[in-house]
Give the backbone structure.
Amino acid sequence: MKAFEEQLDRLVALGYPAMLGCSAGEFREHLDGLRAHVSAEAPGLDVAEGTVAYVLVVNCAAAPVAKTLPLVVRDGRAAIERLFPRKPDFFRPAPSLAIPSGHAYLLLDVDRGNSSLNAVPKDARARIAAEGRMPLTIEEGVALLTQYPEFLQPNHCFMMLGSRGDDKRVPALWLSGKQPKLGWCWEGNPHTWLGFASCSGRSPGVAIPG
């Protein structure tokens, strides 16, 4: 479970405990409960395939995307937000996803969406559902890059169909001048360099009393 420890260490090093108003010890103690959902034989990160067995997601009001996105750093370049004229909180998780309650959970069996590059969002959504999988939210995409910024590769980036507003914009994470960027694309437009990130499930959440 080395990867679990490494992910937890990274969140502590980036200041997540202070963000949530708790000590590093309390943060570790409560998130450690998620370890039960991790297999010791879980495969590690595969950058080429764009897959990873699990990712720790901190998802609560105290850790909004506006605070967590700048903590994503790839090759010395911090992620930027370019959602104008929208803001990150315009995009909300789809109710059908049943995002776990609490402060944190595990995203399971994550796939960047290599096989869905250049697909139209509507078609990609149907394909993800047919495979028994679920699309990622913005918060989950940021959590993924927080741990593995190299998940973004030239011509292999991803949209997040799990977060939508009341228009036809679809949020996406891609590289712009080698810098991670959170932006959006129109629902009807395919892109050769954007797939659709998905997961097979989410663990129950854990809460940090406070």
Q: What stands out?
A: Residues 116 and 150 are 19 Å apart (CA to CA). The chain has one domain: 2-202.
